[in-house]
Design brief:
The structure is a single chain. By secondary structure, this protein is α+β, with helices and mostly antiparallel strands. The protein has one domain. It is about 45% helix and about 15% strand. The protein has an 8-stranded mixed β-sheet with strand order 1-4-2-3-7-6-8-5. Helix 6 packs across helix 13, helix 7 runs antiparallel to helix 8 and helix 9 crosses helix 10. One of its GO terms (molecular function) is magnesium ion binding. InterPro entries: RusA-like_sf.
């Protein structure tokens, strides 16, 4: 049993700093500078073998073995080729590559980062299609970057971030760079109407009409950003308050910690139902328990998304990038997180139609210049857009929660739309918040 002095050290800024550095050392960072590929592509298997070989070499040099417990995974893809694969197909293939070795004898080990992709309980994936609105700027190089963390470390980052936030006591005046910040001043989604352009010369009337359209789009964009940022902040607050709701985390020990255990359980009882009923949260049908039910499941999910847009016209059209979060409580049969995305993301693409660069599309929808440099820029922008997957989710995360006695046999799935500009996992945001603010706390000691 720890002494009171040990507890005061471990539960204060100095102890948090030391333990945070220890958790950083347990992270696995992998990078591959080749064009991301899927299993079905011609070079897919060859690249997978090469990726595994390079990953194992990097892990050995860092003294890291395959993880045996639950894992949190952050994946960033950058594609430079035209018409890149969909984000969910890239993620599905990579999660397979990070698991069992394709050639165990060649690698000298049976697996790479983890033994089975069912160990992945938190998954965050981004896809940068190297969209480059300016032809004079060099595109980003292609590649894949991976960060793998043990779930126990992620849960501790979330818990300490919550402690630091309570120490700083800034709510509701969080800095606008804080992941807990809610930009309440931008929540107005009803822009002031522009005066009619009657009586103006045709050229001035057309110019004023264009400015009115732009003002309407800008006001709607700010309102969308504010609402989506609020969803991000609520999700982060929930996970920081209830980190042990995440699947794969250990239950709080008995003994001298009964009060902590009861407090955590009461927080979960309060926050979890609220999170699953956020204004921009959409409960989707639970998992199909029989293989023959998947077709009907897709129809039900599509209908639920369509009704969501009818209920919230604020998101028609989407003028900002979005991060799709899938909060999952598994069925009694369980399910891989990557397979959930493989099923749902194509439906989300089809119904929500989020665009990688909405403002450019807005500009392309206006009357194009007849000639001159602006006409040429317009044509080039349209050509580049057509070479990409224009309508697609470019960031998503899947969070697996523990089953409770109230969870139905088919499990639960809740879709949340969050801000896609920062494109960072909720646990990555907590980790950055912790390390950024530890310095301020130490200075006050």
């Amino acid at each position: 049993m720890r002494s009171p002095d040990a507890d005061s050290y471990l539960d204060g800024p100095l102890g948090w700093t030391h333990q945070s550095m220890q958790r950083l050392l347990r992270e696995v960072h992998l990078a591959d500078e080749s064009e991301p590929a899927t299993k079905k592509q011609r070079a897919g298997r060859h690249r997978a073998i090469e990726f595994q070989r390079n990953a194992v070499t990097a892990m050995r040099s860092a003294g890291r073995r395959s993880m045996t417990g639950a894992v949190a995974l952050d994946v960033d893809f950058t594609c430079s080729e035209r018409n890149p694969p969909s984000i969910h197909h890239l993620a599905k293939h990579l999660l397979d590559v990070l698991g069992p070795a394709i050639n165990p004898k060649d690698l000298g080990r049976q697996s790479v980062v983890y033994r089975d992709d069912r160990q992945v309980k938190l998954l965050h994936v981004t896809l940068d299609q190297a969209w480059n609105p300016s032809p004079d700027t060099a595109p980003k190089p292609a590649g894949t970057h991976v960060i793998a963390r043990p779930i126990r470390d992620v849960a501790e980052d979330l818990r300490v971030a919550d402690e630091i936030r309570s120490h700083l006591d800034r709510w509701p005046y969080e800095d606008d760079t804080s992941p807990f910040h809610i930009p309440v001043e931008d929540f107005d989604e009803d822009p002031m109407p522009w005066p009619p352009q009657d009586g103006f010369p045709p050229e001035e009337a057309e110019s004023l009409a264009g400015l009115a359209r732009f003002d309407q789009h800008w006001s709607l964009l700010r309102a969308q950003e504010a609402h989506l940022a609020a969803t991000n902040a609520y999700l982060l607050s929930y996970l920081c308050a209830c980190p042990n709701d995440i699947a794969g985390t250990r239950e709080l020990p008995a003994g001298g910690f009964e009060a902590h255990t009861e407090h955590a359980a009461s927080l979960s009882e309060i926050y979890r139902p609220l999170l699953l009923t956020l204004p921009f949260g959409l409960p989707l049908p639970g998992f199909a328990l029989a293989s023959g039910e998947w077709k009907r499941y897709g129809q039900l999910a599509r209908a639920a998304l369509a009704s969501f847009l009818d209920q919230w016209p604020l998101f028609r059209p989407l003028l900002v990038p979005v991060t799709v979060t899938l909060l999952v409580t598994p069925s009694i049969r369980g399910m891989d997180l990557d397979n959930i995305a493989l099923t749902l993301l194509p439906i989300i693409h089809e119904v929500l139609r989020p665009h990688i660069d909405p403002f450019t599309v807005h500009q392309l929808g206006l009357t194009p210049p007849v000639s001159g440099p602006e006409h040429e820029e317009h044509v080039q922008a349209l050509r580049r857009l057509r070479s990409l997957n224009e309508y697609s989710v470019t960031a998503y995360q899947v969070i697996e929660l523990k089953r409770t006695p109230r969870t139905p046999a088919e499990g639960t799935i809740t879709l949340l739309l969050g801000d896609g500009i920062r494109r960072q996992s909720v646990w990555g945001a907590a980790s950055d918040y912790l390390r950024h603010n530890l310095t301020a706390l130490l200075e006050h000691e």
